[in-house]
Each structure stands twice: as structure tokens, then as C-alpha cells.
Amino acid sequence: MSVVAHVQELRKKHEALSQAVEQAQKNTGADTLHIVDLKKQKLRIKEEIIKLSS
To answer: What's this model's pTM, rounded to 2 decimal places?
Structure first.
């Protein structure tokens, strides 16, 4: 897989996680630890995108 294709896949995952976080935050009974975990995953992906793009 090329770097460009890998970055595109990471961006798709990042967007999916963004939507999952948004949905979880809308749910009043959402597990806070789950939301924190989603945000950490999102941050790791963002850092990898930045690293690969530079």
C-alpha cells in the first residue's frame, strides 16, 4: 500500500471515529471511558497522518 493510500485510509478511520464520538456524546447514557478511548484512538490516527504527511 502506498503512503498516499495509507493516509487516505487513516483519514477515513479518523472521520468514522469523529462520528462515533459525536454519536456517543449525544447519547446521555454513554460510557465516558468509551468516549475517552475513541478520542485517544482518533488522536493516535491524527498523529500518524501528520507523521506520514511530513
So the answer is: 0.86
